[in-house]
Amino acid sequence: MMDASQFGEWWQYGQYPAFFILGLVVSLINSIAGGGSSLSLPIMIFLGMPATVANGTNRIGLIVGNLSSVFNLAKHGYLNKKIFLQLVIPTLVGGIIGIFFLVNIGDKMFQAIIAIAICLIVISSNVSKNVFGKPPETPPAKLTLGGALGFAGVAIYGCIVQVGVGFLQILSLNRYTGLDPIRVNALKNALTTVFLLLSTAALGIAGKIDWPIAIIMAAGAYLGGYCGSFLQRKKGNKFIRRFINITSLAMAVYLIVDLILD
User: Which of 131, 181, 182, 214 is the most exposed place for a label (fewest CB within 10 A)?
Assistant: First the structure.
């Protein structure tokens, strides 16, 4: 693994604007398309941060960025509160279950999981939303058993790994609600924030957060989430997804090679 000290003394100060920009870019991508962590986590690991610490540190910015985006979208009426209340309980249950696995994963195991998850998420993000059946014309009036189990499973995955959970949420919410993309994104960001708060609290207690870097990234993430919420209706998701796919696969290869050579 590369040691960040190899960048020279300038990195002691230069890392802060670099992580601010990283937080901004990742939050903007997450608010529009999801998958930003498949860029930020490998970059943080590449810069010498232990994988589990990178996982915890990254989540502070994600929470701030999500909240910024959700509040702005909710203010304009895009958050379906009825569906959110349906799915928040299974999301909480899944998050609590995920915590028990999260705090016991070692750095090498987590790095291997990230590499595999990135590859799988890149594949799943390019799968048609109708592959598991046609979405309903209107959201369900009550929580279904499949919905409860499915979103609890999403929360377990998101709590442990987090990488690419936005793509998984979008796919699941499309299939469950049939809502338009901007309302799906509002729900995605709101539900993701629920298990992020749980998992980040657990990682903080376990000492897996680099707080100075986390705060800098959170500042960038707030700006990124706010900007991303305004870009929901504009074209560009296709380009962003292609960019994520190419970069994520390259980063996954790096993580795998690093595990083999270390």
Answer: 131
Can you give the length of the chain in residues? 262
Which residues contact residue 158 at a Cβ distance below 8 angstroms, ignoring those fewer than 6 apart? 94, 95, 98, 165, 168, 169, 192, 195, 196, 199
The string of pLDDT tens digits covering residues 141-161 is 899 999 999 999 999 988 887
The CA distance from 48 to 246, in Å, is: 22
Q: Is the pTM of this model over 0.90?
A: no
Distances (CA, A) of 96 to 155, 167, 181: 9, 21, 28
pLDDT per residue over 122-131, tens digit each?
666 566 555 5
- Chain CA centroid to CA 90, Å: 18
Matching residue, tokens 């309302």:
183
